[in-house]
Each structure stands twice: as structure tokens, then as C-alpha cells.
Amino acid sequence: MEIAREPGGSAGGSRGRRWAIALALGAASALYSGFSFHTATKTPDFAYFWTAARVLLSGGDPYAGRPGVEGWTLADPFFYPLPAAFPILPFCWLPMPIAGALVMGISGGLLAWVLTREGAHRLWMFASAPYVMALKVGQCSPILVAAAFLPALGWLLPWKPQLGLPLFLYRPSARAAILAAAALAASFAWHPGWVGSWLRNVRELESHPAPLLALAGPLLVLAALRWRTPEGRLLLALALTPQLLFFADQLPLQLVARTRRQSAMLAAASLVAFGGWYALLEPGDRYVLDAAPWVMSLLYLPALAVVLWPRARAAAPAA
User: Fold this and answer.
1) Which residue among 136, 168, 179, 202 is least enclosed by CB atoms within 10 Å?
2) Alpha helices in 150-259 (DSSP H)
3) Which pLDDT tens digit goes with each residue over 96-130?
4) Domain range list for the chain
């Protein structure tokens, strides 16, 4: 993808600003994630990737991990495809909070780099509730969003297929498809029977409906009216894939914005959703399930409104 020069500045100056923004946001992401992991009262999602990578390197089977099994100190089994452990292999020798901080910092830096290339209006994504939640729990959505713009990161897309596939459809790339297939091939070479073991674990999961089946979800089928646009494909594919309606998995929804105003509106709506959900929590609530109505009403439906908004009336993205 060719990098256009920004108006009023040299290519070198533009590149320098992009590096500065990427480094600053990457460092801030690392610090926040590291602090969150170090002070967490509940096991962050990143601990599952980190533990699975360590089990793989020791020659074990991460899908056999259960509470009480030696080497598996987590409350749940491993629910992710085997390629989810591959990106963590270079970091799994580090303590979990440090490894997580580095991975999330690199993810945030790469995401900032590609988003500034697309236009500064995209940076509102970093102020959204899905981005903050992804950092807090150590989810892969930031790096997968970056992979939508960097085909060289296509091998990461199988990390979480319910996000990887919609993001691939947003910006299809032969190179990304080949690299994703290579990651899957490597996973079968390492552990030929992992799919069956993974599916057995996934059957234990609860509360991962496709948004289309959630409250007001059928409205999302209207995104098919914009199937020819990247934003329409992304939204419709996300609506059809099972996911946890708990903010972090919905980070790709920020990509449907085409203008600064739309981007700011989606980020603000996500923060209102998070604030409303958090303010109404009471002891004993099933806090993940309670987030779903907020996610549907203030993340998915505003994204649908943006996708259906006439493109001719949208201002050009501000650089």
C-alpha cells in the first residue's frame, strides 16, 4: 500500500510524526497493560495465551490443561485456536505481566502506525472503550485490526477467527490469505489433532452469541445493503460470528467510521456504553452478560447507522 504524503509537509516529516505517535501510543499501551496485569484481581485473557505458549514449548498439549493439571494454573481450559499461541512464543520466557505489556505495547504501536497512514481521524480508536478493554484484559483485537492494513501480519488472523475473518473481508489480500494459511499449516505440523481438542474445549463456552442473535441483532442484517463497501462487509461479518459482547472484541467496529466526526461519535458512544454498564453493576451481577445490551445498543447500532449513512454526504476524512 502506497503511503501518500500529507498536505503541507514532506514525506520525511510525515514519517517522523507517525513514528512519534506510534512510539508514544505503544509505550502508553504497554504501561497501562502491564499495570493492569500486575494489579488484576481476575486472570487476564493474556495469561491463557502466555500459558499455552509455555506448554507448547515444553512439549505439552495446551488443550489438556484443566484446573488441577500440572502446569495449568488457570481456571478455564484453552479456548483459542493453536495459532493463538504462536505470537507469544518469543515472550513466554518472561513473567506474564511483562510479556503481556510488551505484546500489547507492540500491538498498540503497530496499530497507531497503520492508522496514522490512513488518516488522523482513525486515532479516535485509541480513546474507545474496546481499545481500553483490550489492553486491560490482554486481548488480540488491536493487533488484528493492524493486520487488516498490513498484509505481512496476515499470519496473525487465525489467532481469533471470529475477528480475523471479518477483518480480512474488510481489506482482502492474497498475501494475508497465504500467510494465514501458512500459520494454520504450521499449527497442524506442530500438533496435528489440535482442532478436535479445541472444539471439545469450545463446547464448554457460554455466552458467545453471534450479535445477529442478540437483542436488536436482526437489524444488523441491513449491513448487507452496503456489502460492496469495506465497512458493510466488516459489519455484516462481525454480526454473523460468535463473540463475547464485552467491548474488546468489538474494536473492529471503529473502522466503519469514514470521517473524524463519525470516528469521534463511535468512540464516545462506546465510552457511554462502558460507563453505563459499569455504573449499574451491583454485587453478584453476571457482569459480562450485563454488558451485552450496552454493546449492542451503543456500539453495534451506531456502527450500523454509520454504515448506512449515505456516502455522498460524508465529508472526506481529515488528515
Assistant:
1) 202
2) 161-170, 174-190, 194-202, 230-240
3) 999 999 999 999 999 999 999 998 899 999 999 99
4) 14-310
